[in-house]
Amino acid sequence: MSKPLIPAQRREKIQEFLAIHQIARTADLCDLLETSEATVRRDLEWMEQKGILERTHGGAILSQRMILEQEYQQRVQHHPEEKKKIGELAASLIEDGDIVYINSGTTATQVLQHIRRDARITVFTNNVSAVMELGDPGFHYHMIGGEFQPRSNSLAGRFAIDNLNLIYANKVILGVDGISLKHGCTVPTLPESEVVRKMIERTKGQVIIAADHSKWGVVSNFQISNIDEIDKLVTDEKFPASAVDELASHSVSCLIAASEPNPA
Fold first, then answer.
1. Would you say 106 and 83 are in contact if contact means Cβ atoms under 8 Å apart?
2. pLDDT tens digit string along 97-137?
3. Residue 58: pLDDT band by 50, 70, 90 thresholds?
4. Is the pTM of this model over 0.85?
5. Runs of H (alpha helix) within the chain
6. Which among 163, 172, 157, 156 has a CA at the least distance from the CA of 122?
7. How many other C-beta atoms are found inside a 10 Å radius of the C-beta of residue 30?
8. How many CA atoms lie less than 13 Å away from 27 in the CB half-sphere?
9. 24, β-bridge pairs
10. d(CA 56, CA 155)
11. CB distance 183 to 217 below 8 Å
12. Architecture, CATH, for domain 7-62
């Protein structure tokens, strides 16, 4: 029989496992560490207090901090195919007659690009990138105004907030930089968080998050919503099945955007 690991050794192994897999079940950690479930739970509790991980029902996910906002052109290169399929599926949730808020970001831009050109809808957004790429979209499309944010190609500030206060939407579709059961949905900058929180506040209907699998477990600087404020998450096939179950327990419905089939 191998010698039992001391707490520091167990926690190091847990952290190594999460660095590879990002998510872990308590049962798997018990097998890995050859110890009891109660011991693993104590280790996870200690590690959560240190900010290393976030406990979930039946396990844990690695806590990943995103402090600085990346340039828009850098973010475009991350998971482009997943974002495209997510944008297509999220856009299909928009129905004729909707008034929709859509924020800035690469995934949100994909949502805007995939809205039907003959859709009888009205969109309000702070997404400057989409304006430059869409041309004439066919549907009613309004910029909310505000101060230009060069890193994110978006609009924010007092003027944007004042304009949002004049509008009620019945649906909001948002790209975010992090999703966490404990910390909710987060973005890296205060100006964007203020705009997005106001969009949610002024929506009398569904709150839909459009985000790829890499955003799960990430915590950025500013919270824009709790998990319980979300109605739907549109994500990709790499999103962990255990996370789908966790979100379902918070009444969040996960819609999975299927990848393109491989050619025969």
1. yes
2. 999 999 999 999 999 999 999 999 999 999 998 877 787 88
3. confident
4. no
5. 7-21, 26-33, 37-49, 72-76, 80-91, 106-113, 128-134, 158-164, 190-201, 241-248
6. 172
7. 16
8. 2
9. 60
10. 36
11. no
12. Orthogonal Bundle (1.10)
pLDDT tens profile 21-33 = 778 888 989 999 8
Euclidean distance between CA atoms 145 and 163, whole angstroms: 7
Rounded average pLDDT over 216-245: 93
Q: Which residues contact 212 (CB under 8 A, 6 or more apart)?
A: 78, 79, 82, 83, 86, 107, 235, 236, 238, 239
Residue 183: how many other CB atoms lie within 10 Å:
17
Cα gap 108→106, rounded to integer Å = 5
Strands 64-65 and 169-174: unpaired
Say how far apart CA 65 and CA 51 lie, in whole Å. Answer: 10
CATH superfamily, region 72-257? Translation initiation factor eif-2b; domain 2 (3.40.50.10470)
Q: Where are the domains of the chain?
A: 7-62, 72-257
- 165 near 124, Cβ under 8 Å? no
Q: Give, to the nearest 10 degrees, the angle between helix 26-33 and helix 37-49.
A: 110
